[in-house]
Write a structure and sequence with these properties.
The structure is a single chain. The chain is an all-alpha fold. The chain has one helix at 25-48. The N and C termini lie far apart (76 Å).
Length: 67
């Protein structure tokens, strides 16, 4: 009898109609929640995952100038 995390839907509401979004207000709100949740997940993944080499610091090289 432990704690279970909430289960969020991964698909749109079955009554969601993109051609007429205001036909079913519940489907509209659930669709918006889904889009926001997916956006937040993408942002958090971008924070965790390493990106390309352009943002990584350049390796330090020993450059001695001889005179």
């Amino acid at each position: 009898m432990g704690w279970k995390p909430p289960q969020f839907p991964t698909e749109d509401h079955p009554d969601w109609n993109p051609d007429d979004p205001y036909a079913d207000p519940v489907a509209l709100l659930e669709h918006r929640e889904l889009m926001v949740r997916q956006k937040f997940v993408k942002q958090e993944k971008a924070k965790v995952q390493p990106c390309c080499c352009a943002c990584a610091p350049a390796p330090a090289t020993a450059t001695a100038t001889a005179q």
